[in-house]
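Quiz preparation item.
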């Protein structure tokens, strides 16, 4: 391939990158408008995020690429609405990688050595969300001494390889009047 052809292709990629950046900036500018429209309600909406990612995958892009890129865009926009306090149960590389892949570095993150300490912090409202592996959730369902009521909001990642673990995002169950 000649240098002229290569330079032309790179120039086209640069133009596309510039356009993508402009569109991302425009998307981010909508975050403050969304915050106003939500009128103070809790901004994290994993069902909406899942629908969006599935819709984008259906446009023909690689599902792993879509999830990885859009998770970061979504988290960045979400952090403009509210800096969430999120607890992560565990400190190993797998859970850190899964957490950062989902939420990025945009939130106040606390790592807990045990699921029990994460649940205690959730119960005291020191954190708003918990991030833990699905195996721990299954074990919790069999333990009657755990008194913290929580809802599983999401199972992540949406698309995974055979060797990836499943994780859950949890929130303190809100009592309905």
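Solution:
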């Amino acid at each position: 391939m000649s240098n002229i052809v290569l330079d032309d292709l790179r120039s086209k990629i640069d133009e596309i990158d510039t356009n993508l950046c402009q569109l991302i900036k425009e998307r981010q500018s909508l975050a403050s408008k969304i915050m106003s429209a939500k009128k103070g309600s809790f901004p994290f909406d994993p069902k909406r995020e899942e629908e969006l990612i599935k819709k984008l995958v259906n446009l023909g892009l690689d599902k792993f690429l879509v999830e990885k890129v859009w998770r970061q865009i979504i988290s960045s926009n979400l952090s403009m609405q509210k800096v969430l306090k999120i607890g992560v149960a565990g400190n190993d590389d797998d859970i850190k990688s899964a957490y950062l892949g989902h939420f990025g570095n945009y939130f106040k993150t606390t790592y807990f050595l045990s699921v029990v300490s994460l649940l205690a912090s959730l119960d005291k409202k020191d954190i708003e969300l918990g991030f833990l592996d699905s195996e721990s959730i299954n074990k919790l369902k069999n333990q009657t001494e755990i008194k913290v009521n929580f809802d599983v909001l999401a199972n992540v990642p949406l698309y995974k390889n055979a060797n990836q673990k499943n994780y859950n995002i949890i929130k303190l169950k809100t009592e309905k009047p």
